[in-house]
């Protein structure tokens, strides 16, 4: 029974990859349009691949150096192994490959979505969403396959081969080596997200400032030299970057739950590893339920509600996962369990999973409210655009700050409730439940940039207005789904980081983080500062690269006669080259901060001060991520609202009006917020926690024995007698 369940995990990953291949084949077989459309799509695909090759070259050097250091450090302590270097390399490769899969299908699906939009909105949605689902299933399938296969290998290698117990130092070693997989995934994700974000926003800002504001030509106009780089950026930032991002989140969430699950003494039918296996099983079945949910994403006709169709698919996959988790928990877990003295039942674990799903859903709903067209927050920015650029900026900043209140309250309530249900394991399994439908979440998210590219190709190809009208409908919904996806990602990152933090505390041998100590309090402040300097570096990088882009576009308008009359073709490759070089150059410093800070603090000041830094960076990073992503999303949809016309004080305003120009400025400011620094916050806080977890055995203040140490504390224990819940106090508990 134990063997069958363990091998079920990678098998479900393979299932996801098989369905992904089928969907990818279907997309590829769709019509790609006329010669002009194919040519433009070719420019975008070539630019995206050029960026990935340049990025992978730099990351290859980083991966080799990191692998050598990890291999050397793995020999220093009993609870690690040089094999962690191999685990790291596999995680890095899978993360990069997940982004590559998404980017390849996106650059195929974009032009096919444009062609489908020539026939109907329903077919355009089908092509674009199927392209997004390839991305989602690829990421989830690779994560479950990689993590499940490596766990089987390390479990047999370090635990079963020596006849060791589940709760001993041998399992700790297996999971420590497995943490290398997560470290590799998150490291690549950070560079992919930051590098891709700098690329896409440098091109976008440059294209907007010169094209729309100065030259007065439409967005994605073929005459704009930066428009190809802009469309390339949608793929390398919002697709490849987001794919690597959620791959890392997915893996880190499962790993954190597994590490905490090792501390639970479980009398189950699976050799005591049920609490460790549970998050992997949830993730694997989440792929199945995401596939089922994808079938619900369809509309009947031109008047169909695209947002409603996407919500239907999302909610159905969440409901399926919630129902299935009841039977999974009842089947796998014993009636009573405990972690660090906190006793709970298997039903409490189920309640924590449901709470995680509810938190994820609420975060998406709240984010949608603050960023969607027609809602109060976006309408307030539109109204403030009537009095100029400055008031538009003020309005957007206000909306972004306000948008942190409800999500933080939901998140805080979720953390408190999950802990009440099942202690620290409850917090971790709530995050695992939230991330179970990652395949569906990412399919919805990747749909957005595909639709955006489709609209760009329609504009550049000068297709009929009705085609652009259909792609604009998809694009507007895509802006909202992108924002909700980022809200979902930051919520999962907060829960995951808390679980990783708890795992770090256990392995580092410390009992608590005492902020009354001056050095710990100092660490807390330093941690709170890191998201600000990280954001500063990322936003400044976009600004510098955008200046180069603006100068290049102006040069081409000035020096190449006939561009504005469609008589000469712009030098698109020059703009692609500017974005590529800038993103590769500028991504190093922010990435180094996330990787090096925990190492320096941990080895110089010890695990407790490092714990203070992690607490500071988590709280500050979550707030910064929400604020920036939501402000940018609201600014973007405020600008897009003018394309259909908006009423301000009884008067209608459209594109090229003064309020519209103010909204373009707001959108330009919001671009690096929502696509560079904002979404990078969730990777920052997770990566720092994972680095801390990996170095924890090296800076540990405690000794690890064959079994977990015991402490005497007064705790409450839950027992069930004749079906009734009985609460008693116990003194001897397992740490």
UniProtKB/TrEMBL annotation:
What are the residue positions of the site described as Determinant of potassium dependence? 482
Instruction: Cite the GO molecular-function annotations of the record.
Output: inorganic diphosphate phosphatase activity
Q: What is its EC number?
A: 7.2.3.1
| Superkingdom, taxonomy of origin | Bacteria
Q: Which residues cross the membrane?
A: 6-27, 58-77, 83-103, 124-157, 276-297, 309-329, 349-372, 393-416, 422-444, 488-510, 522-546, 587-606, 612-635
Q: Note the topology in the membrane.
A: Multi-pass membrane protein
- Chief subcellular location equals membrane
* Catalysed reactions, semicolon-separated: Na(+)(in) + diphosphate + H2O = Na(+)(out) + 2 phosphate + H(+)
What does UniProt list under activity regulation? Answer: Requires K(+) for maximal activity.
Please state where this protein is localized: Cell membrane; Endomembrane system
- Entry cofactors: Mg(2+)
Q: Which InterPro entries match?
A: PPase-energised_H-pump
What are the record keywords, sorted? Cell membrane, Hydrolase, Ion transport, Magnesium, Membrane, Potassium, Sodium, Sodium transport, Translocase, Transmembrane, Transmembrane helix, Transport
Tell me the protein family, please.
Answer: Belongs to the H(+)-translocating pyrophosphatase (TC 3.A.10) family. K(+)-stimulated subfamily.
What does this protein's UniProt record list under function?
Sodium pump that utilizes the energy of pyrophosphate hydrolysis as the driving force for Na(+) movement across the membrane.
UniProt-listed PANTHER family = K(+)-INSENSITIVE PYROPHOSPHATE-ENERGIZED PROTON PUMP
Subunit composition and interactions:
Homodimer.
Q: What is this protein called?
A: Putative K(+)-stimulated pyrophosphate-energized sodium pump
Which source organism does the UniProt entry give? Answer: Algoriphagus pacificus
- Lineage of origin: Bacteria, Pseudomonadati, Bacteroidota, Cytophagia, Cytophagales
């Amino acid at each position: 029974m134990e063997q069958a369940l363990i091998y079920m995990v990678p098998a479900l990953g393979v299932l996801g990859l098989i369905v992904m291949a089928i969907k990818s084949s279907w997309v590829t077989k769709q019509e790609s349009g006329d010669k002009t459309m194919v040519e433009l799509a070719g420019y975008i695909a070539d630019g995206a691949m050029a960026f990935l090759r340049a990025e992978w070259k730099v990351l290859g050097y980083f991966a080799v150096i990191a692998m050598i250091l990890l291999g050397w450090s793995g020999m220093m302590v009993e609870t690690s192994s040089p094999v962690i270097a191999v685990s790291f390399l596999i995680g890095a490769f899978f993360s990069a490959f997940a982004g590559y899969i998404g980017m390849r299908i996106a650059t195929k699906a974009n032009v096919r979505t444009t062609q489908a939009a020539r026939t109907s909105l329903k077919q355009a949605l089908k092509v674009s969403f199927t392209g997004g689902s390839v991305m989602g299933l690829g990421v989830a399938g690779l994560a479950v396959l990689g993590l499940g296969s490596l766990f089987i290998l390390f479990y047999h290698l370090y635990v079963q081969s020596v006849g060791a117990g589940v709760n001993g130092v041998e399992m700790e070693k297996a999971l420590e080596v497995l943490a290398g997989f997560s470290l590799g995934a998150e490291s690549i994700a950070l560079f992919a997200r930051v590098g891709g974000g700098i690329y896409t926003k440098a091109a976008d800002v440059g294209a907007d400032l010169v094209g729309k504001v100065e030259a007065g030509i439409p967005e994605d106009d073929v005459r704009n030299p930066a428009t190809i780089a802009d469309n390339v950026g949608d793929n390398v930032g919002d697709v490849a970057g987001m794919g690597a991002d959620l791959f890392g989140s997915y893996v880190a969430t499962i790993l954190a739950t597994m590490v905490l699950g090792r501390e639970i003494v479980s009398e189950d039918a699976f050799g005591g590893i049920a609490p460790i296996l549970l998050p992997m099983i949830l993730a694997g079945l989440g792929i199945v339920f995401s596939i089922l949910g994808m079938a619900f994403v369809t509309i009947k006709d031109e008047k169909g509600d695209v947002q409603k169709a996407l919500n239907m698919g999302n909610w159905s996959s969440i409901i399926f996962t919630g129902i299935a988790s009841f039977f999974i928990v009842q089947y796998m877990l014993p009636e009573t369990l405990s972690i660090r003295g906190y006793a709970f039942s298997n039903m409490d674990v189920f309640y924590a999973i449901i709470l995680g799903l509810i938190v994820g859903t609420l975060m998406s709903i709240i984010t949608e409210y603050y960023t969607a067209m027609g809602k109060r927050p976006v309408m307030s920015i539109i109204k403030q655009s009537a009095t100029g650029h400055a008031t538009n900026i003020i309005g957007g900043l206000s909306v972004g700050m306000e948008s942190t209140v409800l999500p933080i309250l939901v998140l805080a309530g979720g953390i408190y409730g999950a802990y009440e249900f099942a202690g620290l394991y409850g917090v971790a399994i709530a995050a695992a439940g939230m991330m179970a439908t990652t395949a569906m979440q990412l399919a919805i998210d990747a749909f957005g940039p595909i639709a955006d590219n489709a609209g760009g190709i329609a504009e550049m190809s000068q297709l009929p207005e009705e085609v652009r009208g259909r792609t604009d409908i998809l694009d507007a919904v895509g802006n909202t789904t992108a924002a909700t996806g980022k809200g979902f990602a930051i919520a999962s990152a907060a829960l995951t980081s808390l679980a990783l933090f708890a795992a770090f505390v256990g392995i580092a041998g410390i009992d608590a983080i005492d902020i009354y100590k001056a050095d710990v309090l100092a660490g807390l402040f330093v941690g709170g500062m890191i998201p600000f300097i990280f954001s500063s570096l990322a936003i400044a990088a976009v600004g510098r690269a955008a200046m180069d882009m603006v100068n290049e576009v102006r040069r081409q308008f000035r020096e190449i006669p006939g561009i504005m009359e469609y008589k000469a073709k712009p030098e698109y490759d020059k703009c692609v080259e500017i974005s590529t070089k800038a993103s590769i150059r500028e991504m190093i410093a922010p990435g180094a901060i996330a990787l090096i800070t925990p190492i320096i603090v941990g080895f110089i000041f010890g695990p407790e001060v490092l714990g203070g830094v992690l607490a500071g960076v988590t709280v500050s990073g979550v707030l910064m991520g929400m604020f920036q992503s939501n402000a940018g999303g609201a600014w973007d949809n405020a600008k897009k609202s003018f394309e259909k016309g908006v009423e301000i004080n009884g008067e209608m305003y459209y594109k090229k009006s003064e309020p519209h120009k103010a909204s373009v400025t707001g959108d330009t400011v919001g671009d690096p917020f929502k696509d560079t620094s904002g979404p990078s916050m969730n990777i920052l806080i997770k990566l720092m926690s994972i680095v801390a977890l990996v170095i924890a055995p090296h800076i540990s203040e405690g000794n690890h024995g064959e079994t977990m140490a015991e402490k005497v504390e007064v705790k409450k224990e839950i027992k069930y007698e004749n079906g009734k819940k009985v609460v008693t106090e116990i003194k001897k508990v397992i740490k």
